[in-house]
Structures are given as C-alpha cells and as structure tokens.
Amino acid sequence: MKFIRSVTDVFGYSPFKSLRLHAEICGRAVGLLQRQFHAYRKEDFDTVEKLRDEIDELEHEADKIKEEIRGNITSSLMLLVDRHDLLNFLTVQDEIINYCEHVGHMLTFREVKTAPKDIWDEFDILLAKIMEAVNEYEKLVDHIATLLASSFSKKEIVEALLHVPEIENLEHECDMIQIGLHNKLFNADDMNPLDAHLMIEWVVHLGEIANNTARAADRFRIMILSR
Q1: FRET label pair with 213: which of 90, 94, 149, 222, CA 20 to 30 Å apart?
Q2: Distances from the Cα of 70 to the Cαs of 3, 15, 18, 91, 157, in angstroms?
Q3: pLDDT per residue as tens digits for the range 3-43
Q4: In a domain, 5, yes or no
Q5: How far apart are the two ends of the chain, measured CA to CA in Å?
C-alpha cells in the first residue's frame, strides 16, 4: 500500500526550537569548559574530571537533538529555509560542542605543573574571549523566533545579521591570542616539553571552538539570505 503523509505529518514538525536548544547546550558546554580550566589551574583535578563528565553528558544531549532534527528534516517537509542550508548550519554548530568535548578530555590526559603564570593568564583571556563569542552567537540564534514570527521580514533579518560581523571580529581576536600563546609555549624553555606540547594542543582545539562559532554564524547568514 502506498503511504501518503497527512498534512500534519508534512507541516507538523518545526526544527527551529530544537536548533535554538542545541545552540544553548553548546554555550553551556563552553561555560563548563571555562570552569574546567579554572579548576585545572588550581590543581583541583577531581573537579576537572567531574566537569569532563558533565560536558560529555551535554554532548550526548546535543547529539540526540541533532539526530532528532536530521530524522525529521525529510525532502517532503515544507520549510521556510533551504533544507540543505539548515542541515549544514546544524553540522557546523554541532562542532562547537564536539571540540568542547575534545578539550575536556585532553585536560585529563596529564597534570601540567610546569607552566608559568603568564601562560595560564593567557589561557584565561582566550577562554573569556571564546565565551564572549559564543554568547554573541547565542544572541544571533535567539533571533530565530522573531524571524519566524515576522515571516523573515527584511527588518528582522537585518537586525539578526548585525551579530555576525561581531562574532567574526571576536573570532579574529581569539586568533590573535592563540598566536601569542603559541609563541610563549614554543619559547618556554623552562617547561617540561610534554607539558608544552599538550598545552599547544589545547590552544589548537580551543581555536576550533571559536572558528566553528564564526562558521556557524556564517552558515546561519547563508541559510537566512538564501531562502
């Protein structure tokens, strides 16, 4: 028997609330990662492991939302944006929390105790800047509700997309901090080489959180402007 989808089946699912929730979970994971670094610096390694597990739980929750969206965004579903643009946006947004999870685990690989204070200070600055970028990104995604309510009016689109260059600027600032950290770490002659190598890997992976935040903002812009 040929299966015919009802009107409710075709129009009854909207992914936008789930997209917003997924973005919120990504932001919460970045906040936990920032707390994890603070605990690591204080050598509170029990808390470091506890926060790693909390980030893992958030990543699992985000994966469930991602699969729910992917399972419902079929070719027969009528959407206000292009299906492929939406799924591409979701994929990049998901990388934010994936890299949070990667770094969260890397913080449990080794107890670094030879890093000087100025290097730890730079990590604090980098994490604060990443958090700032992610907070700005959440403001961007918050516009989904008003965009839908206004049927993507030009005024609402313009207001939403004002956040994108700000996010891109914050990501550039993260790049500059990373360059400074790499310079310090490659020239930290008094550090244990394994400690320095591990911290360099932290810098690279933290950079990917900022990079994917900016990429997701760009994919959001493409999704909105290409509809």
Answers
A1: 149
A2: 21, 9, 11, 10, 25
A3: 333 333 444 678 999 999 999 999 999 999 999 999 999 99
A4: no
A5: 35
DSSP 3-state of 78: coil
Amino acid at 137: Y
Residue 181: name the closest of 218, 130, 108, 105 by CA: 130
Q: Tens digits of per-residue pLDDT, 58-92?
A: 999 999 999 999 999 887 788 889 999 999 999 99
Enter the tokens of residue 129. Answer: 């800047």
Calpha distance 205→79 (Å, rounded): 34
What's the total number of domains in the chain?
Answer: 1
pLDDT digits (tens, 9 = 90+) for 172-183: 999 999 999 999
Size of the chain, expressed as the number of residues it contains: 227
User: Which residues span the domain enclosing 140?
Assistant: 14-225
